[in-house]
C-alpha cells in the first residue's frame, strides 16, 4: 500500500466561482491581466481570483486524469491485463467478469506522490502530480498490483514484511523501474547493469518508510532485504517482469 489515500480534510479545496462567466473568455483574460499587474483589483477580488484560478486548475486536472484513466483501461496492455486479473479475483458472479472502474478515482493529493491504494476504498490517482499519460500508466499499474495482492493474499498492510513484499512487486512489475523511466528521473546516475533491482529496492524502501510501524530508513531497508528474494522473484500474475 505505502501510499494511503489521504483523508479529505487534509486537502484544501477551492469553492466554485460565484459566476461561471467570470472564468471564461475575455472576462477571465481581463481578470488574469489585472491580477498579474495589480491594477484595479481590491484585496477581496484578488482572493476571489486566486480561488477561481485554483478551482479551474483542479477541475482541468481532474478531467484530464479521468480522460487518461479511461484511455488506459481501454488501450494499455498492462492496465487491461491487471484489470482482468483483479476482476477474476473479485468476481461475485462467475458470468460477470468486469473490473469496477469506480474503484479508481482522481483527486488532489497534499503530498508528493502520484497515487495510493486503500483496501476498502480502492485506487487514488493524484491528479495534481501526474506528468503525462505514460506516468499515469505506471502509477495505475503499480496500484493495481497492490489491489491484486490484497485480494489474493489478504495483505496486512501494517505488517512491514507484507507491505514491503507488495511494494517490491509493484515497483518491479508496473514498469516504473524500466530503463527509460529511471533515466528520466536520474539521468546518467542510473546503472544499466542491476539498475532495475536498485530502482525497485529504493522505491520499495521509500514506501515502507511511510508505514507507521517503520522506525526509519535503516529499518525499512532491513525489512526489504529480508523479503527480497521471495518477493522480487514472484511475478504473478505476469509470466515475467515488464521492462
Explain this structure to me?
Helices cover 55% and strands 5% of the residues. The protein has helices spanning 25-37, 43-75, 77-90, 133-153, 160-173, 179-186, 195-209, 217-232, and strands at 104-107, 115-118, 122-126. A 3-stranded mixed sheet has the order 1-3-2. It has a domain at 158-243. It has 8 helices and 3 strands; from the N terminus they run αααβββααααα. It starts with 24 loop residues before the first helix and ends in an 11-residue tail after the last helix.
What is the element layout, followed by pairings?
Layout: H1 25-37, H2 43-75, H3 77-90, E1 104-107, E2 115-118, E3 122-126, H4 133-153, H5 160-173, H6 179-186, H7 195-209, H8 217-232
Parallel strand pairs: 1-3
Antiparallel strand pairs: 2-3
Please name the defining characteristics of this protein.
55% helix; Mitochondrial inner membrane protease ATP23; metal ion binding; 243 residues; hydrolase; single chain; 3 strands; membrane; metalloendopeptidase activity; three-stranded mixed beta sheet
Low-confidence stretches: 4-9, 185-190
The number of helical elements comes to 8
Through-space gap between termini = 22 Å
Strand line-up across the major sheet? 1-3-2
Question: Percent range for helical residues?
Answer: 55-70%
Cα radius of gyration in angstroms? 21 Å
What does the overall shape look like?
Answer: globular
Task: Write a concise synopsis of the structure shown.
It is found in: Mitochondrion inner membrane. The protein has 243 residues and is mainly alpha-helical.
Amino acid at each position: 500500500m505505502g501510499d494511503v489515500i489521504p483523508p479529505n480534510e487534509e486537502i484544501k479545496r477551492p469553492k466554485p466561482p460565484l459566476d461561471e462567466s467570470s472564468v471564461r473568455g475575455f472576462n477571465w483574460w481581463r481578470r488574469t491581466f489585472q491580477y498579474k499587474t495589480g491594477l484595479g483589483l481590491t484585496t477581496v477580488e484578488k482572493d476571489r481570483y486566486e480561488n477561481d484560478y485554483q478551482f479551474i486548475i483542479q477541475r482541468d486536472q481532474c478531467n484530464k486524469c479521468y480522460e487518461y484513466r479511461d484511455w488506459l483501461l481501454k488501450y494499455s496492455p498492462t492496465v487491461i491485463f491487471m484489470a482482468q486479473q483483479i476482476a477474476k479475483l473479485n468476481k461475485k458472479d462467475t458470468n460477470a467478469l468486469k473490473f469496477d472502474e469506480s474503484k479508481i478515482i482522481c483527486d488532489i493529493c497534499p503530498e508528493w506522490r502520484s497515487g495510493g491504494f486503500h483496501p476498502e476504498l480502492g485506487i487514488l490517482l493524484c491528479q495534481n502530480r501526474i506528468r503525462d499519460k505514460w506516468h499515469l500508466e505506471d502509477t495505475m499499474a503499480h496500484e493495481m498490483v497492490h489491489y491484486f495482492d490484497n485480494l489474493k493474499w489478504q495483505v496486512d498492510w501494517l505488517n512491514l514484511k507484507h507491505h514491503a513484499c507488495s511494494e517490491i512487486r509493484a515497483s518491479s512489475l508496473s514498469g516504473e523501474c524500466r530503463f527509460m523511466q529511471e533515466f528520466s528521473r536520474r539521468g546518467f546516475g542510473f546503472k544499466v547493469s542491476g539498475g532495475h533491482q536498485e530502482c525497485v529496492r529504493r522505491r520499495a524502501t521509500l514506501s515502507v518508510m511511510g508505514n507507521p510501524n517503520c522506525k526509519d530508513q535503516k529499518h525499512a531497508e532491513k525489512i526489504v532485504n529480508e523479503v527480497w528474494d521471495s518477493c522480487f522473484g514472484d511475478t504473478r500474475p505476469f509470466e515475467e517482469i515488464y521492462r
